[in-house]
Amino acid sequence: MFHWLEKHPFLFAVGVFVVIAFAGLIEIVPNFAQASRPVVGTAPYSTLELAGRHVYIKNSCNACHSQLIRPFKAETDRYGHYSLSGEYAYDRPFLWGSKRTGPDLMRVGNYRTTDWHEHHMKNPEEVVPKSIMPAYPWMFENKADIDTAYAEQLTVSKVFSVPYNKAVPTKDGSVTVKMGKDLADAKAMALEEAKVIAADMKDPKVKAAVAAGEIPEIVALIAYLNSLK
Amino acid sequence: MENRPLEYDYTVAKMFMLTTVLLGFVGMLIGVILAFELAFPSINTILGSGLAEYTNFSRLRPLHTDAVIFGFTLSGIFATWYYVGQRVLKVSMGESKFLMAIGKLHFVLYLLVVVAVVVSLFAGVTTSKEYAEFEWPIDIAVVVVWVLFGMSIFGLIGIRREKSLYISIWYYIATFLGIAMLYLFNNMEVPTYFVSNGIGAWYHSVSMYAGTNDALVQWWYGHNAVAFGFTVPIVAMIYYFLPKESGQAVYSYKLSLLSFWGLMFVYLWAGGHHLLYSTVPDWMQTMGSIFSVILILPSWGSAINMLLTMKGEWQQVAASPLIKFMVLGSTFYMFSTLEGPIQAIKSVNAIAHFTDWIVGHVHDGVLGWVGFMIMAALYHMAPRVFKREIYSKKLMAAQFWIQTLGVVLYFTSMWIAGITQGMMWRAHDQFGNLAYSFIDTVTVLHPYYTIRGVGGLLYLVGFVMFAYNIYKTMSARPVEETELKNASPMGA
């Protein structure tokens, strides 16, 4: 019955391709039109937050922590309101994760402080006894890559029309996430943001670095984690 | 033309056999380290805090998955292709200078990509998408390697003497097309360096898709990378190697047809089961769930076809360690493809998702099915490629039992760990408050993580025995004058 097809490799390959491509067309394409609409209150990331997001990705935090709260009582009790599609409108890439070795972080900004994160990254067992998370001491030494974060902001605003410098609505008014006019401007803005974070931190080296105009990775990462609400 | 059998040219097959063994060892070693890092966190900094950035779980985890998927498995796929392809198409690589050059270039570029991946992942250069972590320069190199693989498939088919394509060839073609499509779409990204006129890291990129869409494309890819990397090409192997090794014909041609086209059509729908209870539209989640269950049919179709190939010849299973690997491999395939659909049922998924049960599922498939089948394929190929008898069948049998024990320890511990964790997360006390804090659910897993580590270690020990056996086969045994003969698929 199918013997003739097995003698025609080209037709065979076309047949296979059509059959496997079919599901993708039907399942994926329809969602593209609607899923990317942001919900009220979702704002794009600032330069420092984006640099922190890169630190998060660089160290594969998403390998152990999810950012997706499922609509179950146990999860909303533990982490807060369940996730909505529009909340991820500016997440490139998405960071839902596939494994919870540690807890979900979708709304970690609501219940953890700068101070807590600092100790958690330096020595997890200090704030969570018996934690199996490794420590991340190098984040206190390495400098955050503000340049790349700014390049990404420029890219997403140009290519995907992410609304920087535009008012986005929130429940009580609106917020505007500013993007630097140029790299120097972006760096100055990121440093201002970093100073606010560093003021709540204990590590003298980090404080000194920020005072000297440098931004350690830990500061950027905490800025990102604090933005998760 | 002279009337004598074809001399097949195994140059490229040998090269990929070598990387299969080497990268398999590296990938599994990292896996064992990771397992013990979770059980005993101090191992993260065992080489000192200065090196901790490169030895901790964060950096090693993507390196482990990529080394096993793209190092071990893909090398095994390529090695078997360059062996099986020639033999079922009745044409030698040596007959075409062009195809030989393609094959060698394929290997060299593949090796360069492997090096680039190792360096970039250690450095923390990653896009974060699972099994697609590479930044755009490496992605482009991957596409080139894949195109070379495709050229070698269709090139060899183009000059074939055997007119009809054997079942294994169907699966190799599907592997090539499936991965090509999935990889291209999932890795659509915009390099930021060029759009911003030269600011920041030159290799950095941003995904074309945002949020829910990104997740949808990623798991359409992620699940089906399993399909077209861990299922389809491994089925190609068993359809060639089991009949060849046992001297039995494939049980049913109709069943192979049905399961092939069934698998092709159904598999890509199933990716949605990674996104149950997420923000992906409900109907897609339901489709993912339903099609995952339907997927049992074509998967069991090929597995049953293979097991029934042994009909009337079951004494071979007891007699030959090589047949043992293949038959237990097929059994693990049935087991995994039943376990997967169970986890894709919404109510089960509510407990299983995000837990170690999923990790267990992946590993009973990969260790029991993919690993066993690739090692079996290499054991079958080695005497024919190196023209020497296998060094030790006793060592092979010992390896089989050690590794089987390893797999069993692995999946049983992860089942218990995953279900325990899932139940504890959702437990409420009599007043409706959460019964456990998150850390309670972590500490309770310690014994299971330790057992898992031991299971992984046993599997690794078995793999070292495998590597040693192959090495000794290459170097220690006298050269055989005539090739081992078996009755075979497609005659010779």
Question: Can you tell me about this structure?
Answer:
- The complex is a heterodimer of chains A (229) and B (492).
- Chain A is mostly helical and 229 residues long.
- Chain A has nine helices and two strands, in the order ααααααββααα.
- Chain A has a two-stranded antiparallel sheet.
- Chain A is globular, with a radius of gyration of 22 Å.
- The longest helix of chain B is centred in the middle third of the chain and has 36 residues, at 211-246.
- The two termini of chain B are 19 Å apart.
- Chain B has a two-stranded antiparallel sheet.
- Chain B has helices at 11-39, 52-55, 57-89, 97-122, 136-158, 167-186, 192-195, 211-246, 253-267, 282-294, 296-309, 315-319, 321-344, 346-352, 356-386, 393-426, 438-443, 446-475, and strands at 189-191, 205-207.
- Chain B has 18 helices and two strands.
- The chains are: A mainly alpha (229), B mainly alpha (492).
- Chains A and B meet through helix 1, helix 3 and helix 6 of A and helix 3, helix 6, helix 7, helix 8 and helix 9 of B.
* Total of helices of chain A: 9
Percent strand of chain B equals: under 5%
Span from first to last CA of chain A?
59 Å
Specify the structural class of chain B. Answer: mainly alpha
How much strand of chain A? under 5%
Q: Biggest sheet of chain A: strands side by side, in what order?
A: 1-2
Figure out the total of helices of chain B: 18
Largest sheet of chain A: 2 strands, antiparallel
Fold topology:
The complex is a heterodimer of chains A (229) and B (492).
Chain A: H1 9-32, H2 47-58, H3 73-79, H4 114-122, H5 124-127, H6 146-159, E1 167-170, E2 173-176, H7 183-199, H8 204-211, H9 217-227
Helix pairs in contact in A: 2-6, 2-9, 4-9, 7-8, 7-9
Chain B: H1 11-39, H2 52-55, H3 57-89, H4 97-122, H5 136-158, H6 167-186, E1 189-191, H7 192-195, E2 205-207, H8 211-246, H9 253-267, H10 282-294, H11 296-309, H12 315-319, H13 321-344, H14 346-352, H15 356-386, H16 393-426, H17 438-443, H18 446-475
Antiparallel strand pairs in B: 1-2
Helix pairs in contact in B: 1-3, 1-4, 1-18, 3-4, 3-5, 3-8, 3-15, 4-5, 5-6, 6-8, 6-9, 8-13, 8-15, 9-11, 10-13, 11-13, 13-15, 13-16, 15-16, 15-18, 16-18
